[in-house]
Each structure stands twice: as structure tokens, then as C-alpha cells.
Amino acid sequence: MTAIGQALGGLKVIEIGGYAAGPWIGKVLANYGATVIHIEARDRPDGFRLQYPPYKDGKKGINRSGCFSYFNDSKYAVTIDVKKPGGLELARRLSDWTDVLVENMRPGVIDRIGLGYQELKKTNPGLIFMSTCNMGQTGPRAATGGFGSQLSALAGFCGLTGDAGGSPQLLYGPYIDFVAALVGAPLILAALDRRRRTGEGSHIDVAQYECGAFFLAGLFYDYHANGKIVERDGNADPVAAPHNAYACKDDEWIATSCWGDDEFKRLAEAAGHPQWAKDKRFKDAAGRRKNAAALDELIGQWTAGLTADQLVDILQGAGVRAYKVNTCADLFTDPQLTHRKTWRVRKHPEIDTQAHYFPGFDLSEQPGDVTAPAPLLAQDNELVFREFLGLSEDEYKELEENGVF
Questions:
Q1: Is the dihedral of CA 79, 83, 85, 87 positive or negative?
Q2: Do 157 and 26 share a structural domain?
């Protein structure tokens, strides 16, 4: 791997933790040239390695997890057991070497280990220390556990998802973990800029719950100003009508919406049914929302006879917002993502080729890259500890004999 010529080349980062939120922050930094070291323990590896599918060919293995691979490309991997003689000292030495430390343990755990910010800044006063967890480091729920699906529920997303009168629906995946990570990376850059000006480090406290709740900003205002609690209502929208997903040929779907009367008129004409726009039931948005079931049936009858791609071409050509409801297979062949090189395929020693996602922003002069597949467990112990940290051969062997690695 190399960070030469990249925007974050020379920046040193260590990660203590696992799963999604912390490692995703490190991945973003690594993709733009930072040297990122993912720290695990052999008897407590990153949970994604063994606990969460998919696995190549359905076969579990410490180095075969697709989830681990997705979040950890372009990094180095080492193992340290801080409970073994010399282990904690080695972790502290690595913490003195680094510019940035990212941890996503429950509040208080990193301090009990002996690697908290207050302790580490004594010997590395310029350290940028990021803690990212469910609730943040303080507050009545700070010590409680949970994953992305529970945070999506707590932040209000699930209560708004589902049919009117039906049960709340969970969102797919750890949505808020992804949101928090894309907030966390620029916060690190801000702290580095402050350090450049002041020489001082920072402890950044990222609450994933708060990062997710921000996305409901308009609903918060409606409640605070008007006392209104917005309820789930399927695919309906308080402004746009129609606003839905419609079945097409070949078991495909499109999503489309109209945000004004003129746009609905264009949809009706594009569908070959200009009379829809003249129908008293559909003359304005309020009427279209009130008679949504009837309108959806008419649109659905039209869309059922065409493919999603045909419909998108027709509607976009008429100035109506519409896109196909993509599957994962569609995303890998999507011309927009292909053009922007979103997927970077790299060869992994145990799971063959792996498609890695590149963050959705480009720097014109230093565009970044996926420089390597995700590392094997303990893959870089000797490189990191001997070459980066400068341990002597005797020091390394002693730690190895003590079971630190």
C-alpha cells in the first residue's frame, strides 16, 4: 500500500473497535491516503469477521467476511492483547506514534483499558481522539448498547416507515452508522486544522443517535412550532402527488413523484393520457392526494406494460422525476456509478476478487483510491511494529513470546 501523492498522505490513524461506524471513518481516511491501522486481538477480533454474513461461497472464516472487507479496505491490520505482559505498553507506544485515534467502544471501556484520551494526551498532546458510539459519551443512555436498527427506531425513522395504521418498519442495515461515519471524517479534518494552528489535540465525541435524528429536521420543526406529530403514511408525501413506486414489466419497479400541477400534466401527457390532468379529482395536489388510490391504479396500469428503463426515459424526457428501483445487481452495472468508478475491484488472498465501494466525492488533483483489499487478521504485525514503530528484533520476539500478538 502507498499513500504517496494523496491528500491525506502522511496522516497516521489507528482504530480500536470494530463493526461499522469506527472502521468506516478509517476507510474514508485511508481511501484518501492516510496510513490507517486496524487493531484487534486474536481472541477478540472485529465482530464482522465472524458474526455477520455474507461469507465467500457461504463458508465462514476469519478472513472471509464480506462485511469486514467492505469496511476495511486500504488498511493495515495488527493484533495486540493489552492483558498480556507488554501489550498495554505497546498500544500506548502506537498511540504516541499516531496523529488520530478512532474508537467505537461503549463509553468508559477505552478508559478502563488504559487508553483513554486523558491518559494518552499526556505523552501525545496533539492527538486527535475520536469516540463514536450510539449515544455519545454522556447522558442517561450513554452506557446502553444497540445496533443501527435500534438507533433508526430511536431516532424516529422506523416510526415514519410503513403503511398508515400499520406497524413501524425497520430500515435495512445500520443506516445511522453510515451517516455518523460521514460526519466523523470531516470532524477529524477540522480537528487536524485546529492542531495545525494551535498545536493542541482534541477529543471528538460523535453520537450516532444525534447524527441520525438530524435528518428529521422538518418534522421536529412541525412538532415544536405547531404541535403536530407526523405519522407514517406508506409512500405518500405531504406535498407531492403522485408519490409512489410502481410495478413495471419483468418484475421491476420505478419511483416517481410530481411536485406541482405542471409536472403532473407532463406525466399525464407522457403516459398518453392527457385526460388525467383534466379529471376533477386530480386537478390539484390536494385532490391527487385525496384520490391517491385511484390515481395510483391508473399510473400502475400504464407502468405495467413497460420496462423500468423505458419508463425512466419517457418520464425524464418529459421533465418528470423518475428512477428505477435498483437491486444490488443493478447497482453494479449502473452507468452513473460505473462512470464515477464507485466500485473498485481488488483481489483478496482468501476470497478472490472483492468489489469495494469508494466514497462519493472526488478531489480533482488527488482523487484517492482503494489501494488494497481488506487485510487478513494480524497481517501487518511485523511491518507495523518493526518498521513503523521501530521495535528491535529482541523486543518484537519478547512480545510475541508473551502472547501479545
A1: positive
A2: yes
Judgement on whether residues 275 and 317 belong to the same structural domain of the protein: yes
Helices 261-270 and 308-317, interaxial angle, to 10°? 130
Task: In whole angstroms, give the CA distance from residue 91 to residue 191.
Answer: 22
By the 8 A CB rule, do 229 and 223 touch? yes
User: Which residue, 270, 301, 331, sits at the end of a domain?
Assistant: 331
Sign of CA dihedral 346, 386, 99, 176: positive
Domain boundary among 331, 355, 372: 331
340, part of any domain? no
Note whether residue 184 is domain-resident: yes
Q: Do 168 and 207 lie in a common domain?
A: yes
Torsion angle in degrees (nearest 10) through CA of 353, 359, 363, 367: -10
pLDDT tens-digit series, residues 264-320: 999 999 999 999 999 999 999 999 999 999 999 999 999 999 999 999 999 999 999
The answer to whether residue 326 scores a pLDDT higher than 80 is yes
Altogether, the residues listed in the chain come to a count of 405
**pLDDT average, residue stretch 127-132:** 98
380 in any annotated domain: yes
List all residues 6 or more positions away from 180 whose beta carbon is below 8 Å from its beta carbon: 21, 132, 206, 207, 208, 211, 212
Helix (H) or strand (E) holding 49: helix 47-51
Domain hosting 293: range is 243-331
Q: Give yes or no: residues 129 and 258 share one domain.
A: no
Beta-carbon neighbour count of residue 356 at 10 Å? 24
Distance of CA 284 to the CA centre of its chain: 39
Q: Does one domain contain both 350 and 325? A: no
Give CA torsion, residues 177, 180, 182, 185, to 10 deg. -120
C-alpha cell at 17: 473497535
The strand pairing partners of 245, in sequence order, are 255
Q: Which contiguous run of DSSP H or E holds residue 98?
A: none
| pTM assigned to the model | 0.93
The one-letter amino acid at 333: T
C-alpha distances in Å from residue 226, one per residue of 38, 221, 238 = 48, 8, 15
Residue 105 phi/psi, 5-degree rounding, is -90, 170
- What residues have CB less than 8 Å from 121, skipping those under 6 apart? 127, 129, 201
Helix axes 175-198, 21-31, angle to 10 degrees: 60
List, in order, residues 6 or more apart from 257 with CB less than 8 Å away. Answer: 237, 240, 241, 242, 243, 244, 321
What integer pLDDT is reported at residue 4 of this predicted model? 46
